[in-house]
């Protein structure tokens, strides 16, 4: 790509990439949403996903610290409030912990992250490193997977409620707020990228940044599928290795 695209053409490229590579297409998610997993496998998903949830405000604080644009800092810090809350006991991370507890997992085990898959931890750290090290425009663009999250949230909630007797609306309460938060955040980030990607090189970079983020999400599901769907593949130390699910 050597020709500068219009902002709308850039958006179309980003949306096409997400349609092809977003993790709603992953076999593990199709099993999860379709009711084909057992409770242990769902627990493993929730425990590992906590690593990603806990990293979101860290990467957002990293992005805020990098910019001298006060408007960007003001708007982006709402993401910290969404995940950390304004006080103890509030925010998305607390709601995700409630999800894991609703599935019967021990809070300390979840929050320690010691029983998560190594590949999960590596993928999450790669995302934090990307936001810290790449140009700010690419760091913002890496968040654009949120353009596609309302669809997967709707699939997840409806599918899991219909398929699993051990899942309730209260268990999945985390996702209620995200149906409003994710589109708001995606709209801002998309507008920012369309305004600031002013050269073909910058446009290629923001498309690649979205591709990288899709890879981060896909890699986490690859790890879950490899460990918990394929028999005998749970790595030592991870949740469920050797029959240890505690």
From TrEMBL:
Keywords assigned by UniProt, alphabetized: Oxidoreductase, PQQ biosynthesis
Gene name of the record: pqqC
Superkingdom, natural source: Bacteria
Family: Belongs to the PqqC family.
Gene3D superfamilies linked to this entry: Heme oxygenase-like
Protein's recorded name: Pyrroloquinoline-quinone synthase
InterPro entries linked to this entry: Haem_Oase-like_multi-hlx, PqqC, PqqC-like, Thiaminase-2/PQQC
Function in brief: Ring cyclization and eight-electron oxidation of 3a-(2-amino-2-carboxyethyl)-4,5-dioxo-4,5,6,7,8,9-hexahydroquinoline-7,9-dicarboxylic-acid to PQQ.
Reactions catalysed: 6-(2-amino-2-carboxyethyl)-7,8-dioxo-1,2,3,4,7,8-hexahydroquinoline-2,4-dicarboxylate + 3 O2 = pyrroloquinoline quinone + 2 H2O2 + 2 H2O + H(+)
EC numbers for this chain: 1.3.3.11
GO BP annotations listed: pyrroloquinoline quinone biosynthetic process
Listed pathway(s): Cofactor biosynthesis; pyrroloquinoline quinone biosynthesis
Domain Thiaminase-2/PQQC residue range list: 13-222
């Amino acid at each position: 790509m050597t020709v500068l695209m219009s902002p709308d053409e850039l958006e179309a490229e980003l949306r096409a990439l997400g349609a092809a590579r977003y993790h709603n297409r992953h076999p593990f998610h199709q099993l999860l949403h379709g009711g084909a997993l057992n409770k242990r496998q769902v627990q493993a998903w929730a425990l590992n996903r906590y690593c990603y949830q806990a990293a979101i405000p860290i990467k957002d604080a990293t992005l805020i610290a990098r910019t001298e644009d006060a408007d960007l800092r003001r708007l982006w810090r709402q993401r910290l409030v969404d995940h950390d809350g304004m006080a103890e006991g509030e925010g998305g991370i607390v709601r995700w912990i409630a999800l894991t507890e609703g599935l019967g997992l021990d809070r300390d085990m979840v929050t320690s992250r010691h029983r998560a898959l190594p590949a999960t931890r590596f993928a999450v750290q790669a995302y934090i490193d990307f936001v810290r090290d790449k140009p700010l425009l690419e760091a913002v663009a890496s968040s654009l997977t949120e353009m596609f999250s309302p669809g997967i949230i709707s699939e997840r909630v409806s599918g899991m409620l219909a398929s699993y007797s051990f899942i309730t609306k209260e268990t999945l309460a985390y996702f209620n707020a995200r149906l409003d938060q994710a589109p708001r955040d995606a709209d801002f980030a998309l507008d920012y990228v369309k305004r600031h990607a002013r050269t073909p090189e910058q446009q290629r970079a923001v498309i690649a940044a979205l591709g990288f983020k899709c890879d981060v999400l896909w890699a986490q599901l690859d790890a879950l599928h490899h460990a918990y769907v394929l028999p005998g593949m749970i790595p030592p130390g991870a949740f469920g290795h050797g029959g240890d699910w505690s």
